[in-house]
């Protein structure tokens, strides 16, 4: 097989992706950026979308071409008594050709309509990539949360085992205020901790399994090899550090200048919204096409008839015919009028789709912003107060118990409270990043038809007022 430039590009891309995955396999670690890149570059849906775009573009070219002419062959007026070709003067061997012409500008309009429809596919691919980024980010962060929670539990495991041993030894030696219920309580906490650890491992394994869907290498040139699902690793881990995800457009989300109209303008350049605009323009062409049904349809035909010589040997003149046909759209009330009305209704209905999607996006953004604000408030509470206070309480209760002035049950409760606080703080950090990833989907601006005022503003800022001082990401 000869390698052209496109084949070389595909091959190099596959090699780069393969090396990146093999590297990930060797380290068994996948970062958030790697997961997003692999998901976007190996999504079969994107390749299918390119094929569909090519199909529509080819149909557009085909639709602008006149229909094929029709050729007819026939013998006319053949006498049935002798079946001789030269007996009657009317007997002819006729060859004809006819060509029909579409109504009005139907061909041009249909071609323009399909060309417009083909422009929606790049927008749909941009929307798909934005959705993939959001979805993969949330799965990756779920895996990180489970993985980090497992580490937090395992780090405290030895401490709880130590406490159980101390309680058991103190009870056996009748030292201090240790009672049998304290020993049982310590053992119970270890069992419950083991259950929590198992639960988190279950979450990690199921999330990794879901994430594996997007990390499968896909090569469009070797589709059959892409069905070898055993080539991809089933087990891997995510990075140990929590990544930093920033808002794509913090300016429009500032509390000082926030308005729904401003938000709607920012969302107007979203690929999903622009795809509806393309659909609307195509439907307007559909209205124009329906109106062409009022125009007559023309056709021309020509024929040449050969006649045999007379029985006497004298020649007969051959015959040539030419004609024009056309129809008259006179009874339009129940046909053409209704077709135009239906096309207009379809076009108007698409306008409601854009309004509906814009309202849904605005509502979703506002919901996520409110959630992000509350998560920011909770982050502040945990970082400034709860984590420190639970740690101090655990240390104080342990000191009191060591000095025979405290209760063992209080020591266990304090240690559990400290562990729960750290896990809760971690979950808040992860939930904040997941929220930012969901918000960023709505501000995924189209590079196909982007306006200067709608381009994303990549800054290191968060949100104004409530969110400006809160960093979501690495701790």
Question: Could you walk me through the main structural features you see in this protein, from its secondary elements to its overall organization?
Answer:
It is built from 10 helices and 6 strands, in the order H-E-H-H-E-E-H-H-H-E-H-H-E-E-H-H. The chain is an alpha+beta fold. The protein has helices at 5-27, 32-41, 44-63, 106-118, 120-172, 180-212, 260-267, 271-291, 336-402, 408-442, and strands spanning 29-30, 70-76, 92-101, 237-238, 298-306, 319-326. The strands form 2 sheets. A 4-stranded antiparallel β-sheet has the order 2-3-5-6, with no helix packed on it. Strands 1-4 form a two-stranded parallel sheet.
Outline the fold blueprint.
Layout: H1 5-27, E1 29-30, H2 32-41, H3 44-63, E2 70-76, E3 92-101, H4 106-118, H5 120-172, H6 180-212, E4 237-238, H7 260-267, H8 271-291, E5 298-306, E6 319-326, H9 336-402, H10 408-442
Parallel strand pairs: 1-4
Antiparallel strand pairs: 2-3, 3-5, 5-6
Helix pairs in contact: 2-5, 3-4, 3-5, 4-8, 5-6, 5-8, 5-10, 7-9, 8-9, 9-10
Biased composition (Polar residues): 465-475
Region (Disordered): 451-475
Signal peptide: 1-26
């Amino acid at each position: 097989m000869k390698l052209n430039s496109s084949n070389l590009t595909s091959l190099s891309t596959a090699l780069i992706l393969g090396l990146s995955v093999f590297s990930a396999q060797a380290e068994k670690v996948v970062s958030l950026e790697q997961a997003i890149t692999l998901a976007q570059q190996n999504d079969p849906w994107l390749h299918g979308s390119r094929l569909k775009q090519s199909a529509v573009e080819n149909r557009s070219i085909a639709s602008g071409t006149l229909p094929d002419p029709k050729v007819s062959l026939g013998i006319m007026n053949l006498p049935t008594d002798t079946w001789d070709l030269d007996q009657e003067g009317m007997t002819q061997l006729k060859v004809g050709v006819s060509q029909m012409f579409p109504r009005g500008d139907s061909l041009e309009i249909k071609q323009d309509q399909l060309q417009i429809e083909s422009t929606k596919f790049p927008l749909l691919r941009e929307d798909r990539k934005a959705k993939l980024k959001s979805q993969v980010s949330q799965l990756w962060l779920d895996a990180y949360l489970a993985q980090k929670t497992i580490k937090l539990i395992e780090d405290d495991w030895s401490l709880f085992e130590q406490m159980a041993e101390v309680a058991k030894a103190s009870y056996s030696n009748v030292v201090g205020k240790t009672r049998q219920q304290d020993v049982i309580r310590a053992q119970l906490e270890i069992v419950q901790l083991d259950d929590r650890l198992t639960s988190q491992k279950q979450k990690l394994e199921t999330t990794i399994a879901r994430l594996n869907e997007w990390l499968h290498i896909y090569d469009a040139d070797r589709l059959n090899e892409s069905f070898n699902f055993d080539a991809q690793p089933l087990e891997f881990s995510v990075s140990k550090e929590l990544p930093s995800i920033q808002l794509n457009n913090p300016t429009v989300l500032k509390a000082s200048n926030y308005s729904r109209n401003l938000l709607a303008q920012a969302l107007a350049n979203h690929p999903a919204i622009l795809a509806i605009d393309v659909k609307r323009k195509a439907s307007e062409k559909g209205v124009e096409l329906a109106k062409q049904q009022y125009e007559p349809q023309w056709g021309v035909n020509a024929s040449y008839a050969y006649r045999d010589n007379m029985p006497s040997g004298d020649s007969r003149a051959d015959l040539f015919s030419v004609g024009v046909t056309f129809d008259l759209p006179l009874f339009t009330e129940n046909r053409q009028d209704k077709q135009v009305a239906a096309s207009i209704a379809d076009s108007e209905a698409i306008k409601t789709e854009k309004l509906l999607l814009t309202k849904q996006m605005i509502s979703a953004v506002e919901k996520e912003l409110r959630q992000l604000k509350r998560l920011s408030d909770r982050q502040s509470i945990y970082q400034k107060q709860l984590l420190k206070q639970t740690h101090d309480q655990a240390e104080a209760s342990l000191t009191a118990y060591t000095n025979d002035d405290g209760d063992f049950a209080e020591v266990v409760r304090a240690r559990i409270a400290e562990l729960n606080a750290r896990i809760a703080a971690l979950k808040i950090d992860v939930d904040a990043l997941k929220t930012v990833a969901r918000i960023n989907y709505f501000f995924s601006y189209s590079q196909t038809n982007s306006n200067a005022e709608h381009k994303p503003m990549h800054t290191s800022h968060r949100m104004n007022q409530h969110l400006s001082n809160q960093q979501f990401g690495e701790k």
